[in-house]
């Protein structure tokens, strides 16, 4: 591509409307233009990047044996009512009424449409497994679209759906997709983690999110520094620490007149926060079905994980206890609560870490006082023990390899083992080997193609602009011509190099726009081209080209052979 | 592609819902599945064909210098109100209301969006001309969607928009696009004509439709048998015939008691229909602005062309005259009308053919009578002469080359010289060489990508199914294996050939599904694969492959070299 024949329009100013760096840089580089809230036009430059991502996704899906098809954007209400999602999806589902007053939606995902296709096209276990995918425009009517294409309303998504005669087959394909996704994000040059995730609204039994690591990410992740373990902080297991130390201190009451938090108590007593225990009072349901007052204990520097807590028996629908309930069960106001000597019988659940503590400090159930030197077994009964806290930096990795690090991530892919939720709801079945009609097990696998573009920028940028991973760059290399109009020899040499690079499959552009070098280089850096080659009269005389990698701070003078070697690397 | 790893599902029965052959065959071949009225899922097989068409369109647009981008599907009402099209587009515009009660539409075309992009991105004549295109999903809420993807509501369209500093530049690009379209349809292997067309609702000054010729086409075309002239019948010029013959008969009144049509009069008098003249009474507007009674005369075997008539002075808003008006001006009831001896002054417009007639027959303005032997100049004044009829088969071609033939066509492409309609309405301007802000002239260029798939089938099919032009075929060649499970040598030979063909870029599929030969061949014919090669034990022994072109009625036994030569042809 000759840039004089292309449309490139960069901005010097940082657009005020953009909050995060990818949005800013996509606007500055002229990759996108806002048409309305959450709706973006992809400029020629932006589309080149989007298509590169799309091509990698398609290649790897094909390689993994998935078969591409295309379902309509506009889908009838009746279809969505079969699974109840017409109502359940909520206001993110963009509803449409046609000229005949029939209702439709703009598809945000296509479980219903693909299951409808499947039930018409497939009839036997012999045709399974099958994985059908599409790369099409989707729509979610976000209440607050923001961050450019990171959370746009209209976006490009790859969605795949697999169908299986049994769970074993689903597991195999789930792993196959997991591996395909790993190849995709690796090829795209992204630092990412596959994290075990909560299945959220789509439902099902197993799921992993593929997260691009970036400080601006919305999701908090924990990952091992020594293995590929990664999980959403909400779901990461906090493993049990080593055995409990022996009691070394006597139980004693300490005055903490105004100290209601663990931090304040630790400061007053001059002890580490890790010696204190926090008591969170909630109401669960006892074995008899009656409300059950429960204290959840975590170390002072830890945080209760509500998802983990709710998975314990009797706590599925727990809520925080009221002050009246706290007073009734513990005889004390909040701030000085603890598991010792409740006024009425209570359930005590200690986090694994708390269960391993000795000589710790808890509230005394007496206003203005805490208890120090508390020890399990001696001062109070051994508690019910469970993992009920969020992991923190430095915790051992649950896979036994290394310790956990924290990062923020941007979700760009998601694999779900859906099970039979959709196939059963839509009365979709195939005949099994015994001739019996069975609902197929399903998996679904999404990739936010347009979001990847923004996520890659969040992860790869510097003060000068975008730093594309090579596989996503609009061009791998730009050949810059200094003074194209004034020096025919320079122009001819640049044209020859440009042609040679493209013939070698190196995806080159020629910057023949005739800009001053400073403005030209600033553009090429801003739009993130991995390699820049400058053809100038001086270089021609010396038989060299000026080469600079986007990530380098200095240029090098290279002869043709050395240059080609660099670009091929 | 191994067909055992693909999803192919053909139907033996012809689907009742389909009215035209392309719809029937697309359903039988399993290319599409209906999701709702006018909404189709493209199966893996269908999508392969659609993508082939898309790729050819993209390559030729790129070659022509157009630049690809992508605009949102969902576009805000405010944008469409700038041009007045929110109201004017009518119920085909699918309107959408989001969760915030803001109004949008699903884009049927993108003049507004691209002009909005242009006015933000372009500022100088130096950046022009530019041609921006996209290949995206569009929606028209057809009142009666039918014929499968031929007139679907959701469809894939390539739309391009060019911007110019002046009309000369627009004309150059219009021709450039005309040529690109000709290359596209030629590469796709379609018989087509570019016809001068009415500009319809989009407006503008020049336009050509690209029509694929097929009996089921909705549009009536006239084209020369000796040149590339083609036009919509509505717009084709009926050229003036040779000079008028001299009067040979006396004017006389003939009794036609019940003969009110030219056909009946000619039959009664025993003369050719081409000797009679039909008088059509309409009300136009005189030079003084008052209603003007007008007789439009065409030969008895011709039909008045309303578009041509309305282009004449005073007839822009003409309507048929009422019986009362006819009685007032001609003193006679319909059926016996003519231009002689009106009761009040009238305007007489003779079609070019009528003006060249002598000794003709017209109504006598007297119930039950016609006049025969009528001659211009002698019996009534020379008339106003104009081209006011539809052309018919055998008329001379307006370009002077050959005679006109009639055909039916399916519109698959359209080029428009739009002028400044959109740029002016949207206050879009660039600075010209003199530094003055001027609205750019625009062209727009559409191709119905998904419709091409159906149009190609309308033109290319036989009793066994689709006969794809090679550029659109899902695969160029299918290698069929007889008894893949029973004969390892056959399977190995087929695999080797399949690999060899793909390595040679011949886009081969391997039919390793293990079907009986009859069923396998029927599938391969139905889905229209241009070349079929059968690998069998018998052939292997003889060192040959059984080759058959889709268009051939017999197979040939070819050795490897001859086979490759055939497939490369």
TrEMBL record, chains A, B:
CDD domains registered for this protein in UniProt: ProRS-INS, ProRS_anticodon_short, ProRS_core_prok
Keywords of the record: Aminoacyl-tRNA synthetase, ATP-binding, Cytoplasm, Ligase, Nucleotide-binding, Protein biosynthesis
Record-linked Pfam families: HGTP_anticodon (PF03129), tRNA-synt_2b (PF00587), tRNA_edit (PF04073)
Listed GO MF terms: aminoacyl-tRNA deacylase activity; ATP binding; proline-tRNA ligase activity
BP term (GO), one: prolyl-tRNA aminoacylation
Catalytic activity as recorded in UniProt: tRNA(Pro) + L-proline + ATP = L-prolyl-tRNA(Pro) + AMP + diphosphate
InterPro entries hit by this protein: aa-tRNA-synt_IIb (IPR002314), aa-tRNA-synth_II (IPR006195), aa-tRNA-synth_II/BPL/LPL (IPR045864), Anticodon-bd (IPR004154), Anticodon-bd_dom_sf (IPR036621), Pro-tRNA-ligase_IIa (IPR002316), Pro-tRNA-synth_IIa_bac-type (IPR004500), Pro-tRNA-Synthase_IIa_type1 (IPR023717)
Domain Aminoacyl-transfer RNA synthetases class-II family profile, first and last residues per copy: 38-469
GO cellular component terms, A-Z: cytosol
EC code(s) of this entry: 6.1.1.15
Cellular compartment(s): Cytoplasm
Alphabetized PROSITE patterns for the sequence: AA_TRNA_LIGASE_II
Family in the record: Belongs to the class-II aminoacyl-tRNA synthetase family. ProS type 1 subfamily.
Xref: HAMAP family: Pro_tRNA_synth_type1
Free-text note regarding domains: Consists of three domains: the N-terminal catalytic domain, the editing domain and the C-terminal anticodon-binding domain.
Subunit annotation: Homodimer.
NCBIfam families from the UniProt entry: PRK09194.1 (NF006625), proS_fam_II (TIGR00409)
Matching PANTHER family: MITOCHONDRIAL RIBOSOME PROTEIN L39/PROLYL-TRNA LIGASE FAMILY MEMBER, PROLINE--TRNA LIGASE
Record function comment: Catalyzes the attachment of proline to tRNA(Pro) in a two-step reaction: proline is first activated by ATP to form Pro-AMP and then transferred to the acceptor end of tRNA(Pro). As ProRS can inadvertently accommodate and process non-cognate amino acids such as alanine and cysteine, to avoid such errors it has two additional distinct editing activities against alanine. One activity is designated as 'pretransfer' editing and involves the tRNA(Pro)-independent hydrolysis of activated Ala-AMP.
Protein name listed in UniProt: Proline--tRNA ligase
Source organism of this protein record: Thermomonas haemolytica
Lineage: Bacteria, Pseudomonadati, Pseudomonadota, Gammaproteobacteria, Lysobacterales
